[in-house]
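Subject: Predicted fold for Xylan 1,4-beta-xylosidase, 535 residues

User T.R. writes:
Posting the sequence so we have a shared reference for the thread.
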Amino acid sequence: MIINPILPGFNPDPSICRVGEDYYIATSTFEWYPGVQIHHSRDLVNWDLVTRPLNRASQLDMRGNPDSGGVWAPCLSYADGLFWLVYTDVKRFEGSFKDAHNFIVTAPSIEGPWSDPIYVNSSGFDPSLFHDDDGRKWFTNMQWNHRPEARNTIGHAKFDGILLQEWDPKTQKLIGPIRNIFEGSQQGLVEGPHLFKRNGWYYLTTAEGGTGYDHVVTMARSRSIDGPYEMHPNTHLITSKDNPEAVLQRAGHGQYVETPDGQVYHTHLCGRPMAPKRRCTLGRETGLQKCVWKEDGWLYLEQGGVVPSVEVPAPNGAIKREEPVEIVRTFDSPDLPSEFQWLRTPHPERLFSLTERAGRLRLFGRESIGSWFEQSLVARRQEHHRFRAETRLEFSPDTYQQVAGLTHYYNRYKFHALGISTDEKLGRSLIILSCPGDYPSGKLTFPIGMGQSIPEGAVDLAMEITDNDLQFFWRVAGEGAWQAIGPVLDAGVVSDEGGFGEHGSFTGAFAGMFCFDITGRCNPADFERFVYRRV
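User M.O. replies:
I've generated the structure tokens; pasting them so everyone works from the same file.
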């Protein structure tokens, strides 16, 4: 059986592609670096991260990008012996404008090498590339409207229909007329277009309703690629908007795929909110539904209706493998463990080193936690509602402006951090820095005030998240029992819905290590290990 979500934790906007017996899913990474996660499977049940292709300055530089800017909604496809990856780099998020620049990179293999990007356009986000059976290629994206009214769509004025234009691979440019081919349904906020062709019909799936609890996958078709498009009999293929009791909420934004023997599936993003405030700490995750074609030439969920299921039949009866309860990472390799990422910059050597001190991840103190430029934070996704993270570090601050430790992090407005610092009266000490959703000012709270004195030497730090609750712990490295420090904190605020609300941010919670030194002297912290354990 396929067990949803197939990619737990922050993995939204899934674009799926099959090449022979191999399936690949590309998901958005927003401000996290390197850009775009690509997972691989042979059975649609078990998935492994294989690459993050946007990994150098010539491809992606997000320094200065706002929270929830960066890489939105990639589209992965395969044609002409190449993998094609289309993506947006969003430079402005708030206000009436979206500065959203669309690019294409290609590679002969999923592992690369991936090309430098080719610029396409900036008229809107959620780009997609369709390879027609006559050899022509077509580029689609939603059109962003900064005006008070929309002329090309229904519902929300900012989302002004789906644009289509031909892509010429020889000149590497868009050619021919720009056509607005789809206004969307009454649900509004049409985005996330993907085209495919079957039996002479062009099928268009889009996302609508915004990426909150009214999200949907909408489907339409036409005999001509530029329309007019007629709507699916149910309008929506997948949605949980009218079923608040469904496990998988916020379902929308996905893509169609066929197996080699003709079975059909459709990806979608989803969220699993925590009661009582319906907050998704795991962010938007990836789900997969089995579908069927009916005699009317339309696609439907195999189980009937439109609500996504947690358990879905696999194409070949594959069984989901057991996931480890605990993952222990020691930093004795020159490469960062694959589940970890950092923020925004294509120059990680300014943030951390795995070789400067053998067996340690050394973080160089840079700008403040929450900075949009150079923030030394290395973290992995939260994948479970209940987990524990532990780390051991050595850090010798000489001013309170230097702090290093362990954090539960979403963005500059939503995080809790336990760190080693120093104080004029307390000496070497632990301090908790929290920003519990204080948007837009980002002011800190201090759950243990000025801190708690600790001895010199290496220290173990831990945090345990139980649904909506977070408790920090500490001890002298390897000595004695863990000691709780500070009150139980609100872990639920470290979520999509925390602070600004369900449409305000689009990533997910991370557990990680941080170090800042706002004196500019780059005082380093050395981390010996990192443990992630589901509980």
